[in-house]
Amino acid sequence: MNQKGISEKEVLSVLNAARQKDTSYEKVLSAMCTMPHPVAVKAHLQFIESNLGDFGLFPGTKELEDKVIRIMGDLLGDSQACGYITTGGTESNLQALRAARNLSGKKRPNFVVPTSAHFSFDKIGDLLGMEIRKAGLDKDFRVDIGSVEDLIDENTVALVGIAGSTEFGSIDPVDKLADIASSHDLFLHIDAAFGGFVIPFLDKKYDFDFSVSGVTSITADPHKMGMSTIPAGGLLFKEESCLLPLEINTPYLTIKAQHSLTGTRSGAAVAAAYAVMTHLGREGYRKIVTRCMGMTRRLVEGAGEFGIEPLIDPVMNIVALDVPDLDEVRKELRGKGWFTSITRTPRAMRILVMPHLKEETLELFISDLGACAGRTYR
Ligand SMILES: *Cc1c(COP(=O)(O)O)cnc(C)c1O
Fold first, then answer.
1. Contact 274/282 with Cβ under 8 angstroms?
2. What architecture is domain 38-278?
3. Which protein residue has the closest C-alpha to ligand 1 atom 4?
4. Nearest CA to ligand 1 atom 15
5. Measured from the CB, is residue 89 less than 6 Å from ligand 1?
6. Residue with CA closest to ligand 1 atom 12
7. Strand 187-191 vs strand 217-220: parallel, antiparallel, or unpaired?
């Protein structure tokens, strides 16, 4: 550390230079996060020092958190659900599996996820000392129910279903998972980190949330399609009893106990989530999702004119395009400023059509894609 402080002006100039190196979201088609809504940014700044790790000092922020949980519960099929605002999908998934493990009391616990599960579950298996078992997928990249059943044994403590898979945007058959979970008396966690703020606003209806009896907990991230600021994840439990195994005594705080993984915890992110959710309402989110889905269909149509097809009809605003010479084409597109991503199996070009994408930028991408793939219009 420098001995003598430098002026604010100098600091800001270093920050500006660093910011210049960061990517603006304009041509980013690989991210699950987006520009937060302006009202979320305002709220975030207003609550910048609020610490929910010691919420006895911040009862106003705590009230906002309770309201956010109620709003999310209502959105996800049970307004009585309980939980808290986490740092993101990873913490939410970790805490859900931790609750499941501790409730089961099993000595050598395992849990079953689809192979489409987010990599956070690999961290979780390691952290919690649980064996992770991966079930196969059907042709639409949803979990294969037979494969899940085959993997369950007497040491299984939880099943995980994905509502909006990271790579394909596919939604697992949650009702069927719930049937198996119920018949084996297992905890059922639904990872809707991305899908939680998309699926409720799609034209097509899916049963993926607490409206399905047997669903124990849900992850849904305000900092992805919820348009809120980072770090904001949501963890919801159907029953308050699931929070108990997460409870820790906090002797030297203004509160007696906490359930979060982190100690110090951003109240700003909670205020931001409250602000954007109440400001947009269901109508506002529906508009955003409808626009993203419209552009997703336009991308599929545009790519199709070059003979490039999606692996599946997009379920949400995530597309996996079967692009020939994938690595070469992605490299060329990168040269033109585009950030694309990939799916693992089968390998394809993964595109997220996020709210920051403009219609004219999408048209530019479609024509660049065609050019880089060496295709002419059909
Ligand atoms: C993004 C994502 C996660 C991880 O969320 P973070 O906020 O990055 O920790 C988990 N599951 C799914 C399905 C995701 O899309």
1. no
2. 3-Layer(aba) Sandwich (3.40)
3. 89
4. 166
5. yes
6. 193
7. parallel
CATH number of 14-36+282-372: 3.90.1150.10
**Angle at 367 (CA atoms; ends 362, 372), nearest 5 degrees:** 120
Dist CA 114 CA 94 (whole Å)? 16
Asked whether the beta carbons of 116 and 167 are under 8 A apart, the reply is yes
Looking at beta carbons, which pairs linking 12-16 to residues 24 or more positions away fall under 8 Å?
none
Phi, psi angles (nearest 5°) of residue 142: -100, 160
Token representation of residue 206: 């899916």
Quote the ligand 1 centre to 85 CA distance (angstroms).
14
Determine the distance separating the centroid of ligand 1 and the alpha carbon of 89, expressed in angstroms.
4
Residue length of the chain: 378
| pLDDT value for 378 | 62
**Pair 101, 128: CB distance under 8 Å:** yes
Tokens at residue 171, please? 């939604």
Residue 194 CA to ligand 1 center (angstroms) comes to 7
* Beta-bridge partners for 220: 234
Tell me, in angstroms, the distance from the centre of ligand 1 to residue 193's CA. 5
pLDDT number for residue 374: 81
Residue recorded with tokens 């084996």: 184
pLDDT in the model for residue 180: 98
The pTM of the whole model exceeds 0.85: yes
Mean pLDDT by 10 residues, the chain (378 residues): 97 98 97 98 98 97 98 98 98 98 97 98 98 98 98 98 98 98 98 98 98 98 98 98 94 92 97 98 98 98 96 98 96 98 96 98 97 78
Residue 377: its pLDDT value, please?
66
DSSP letters spanning 320-333? EEE-TTHHHHHHHH
Q: Where are the domains of the chain?
A: 14-36+282-372, 38-278
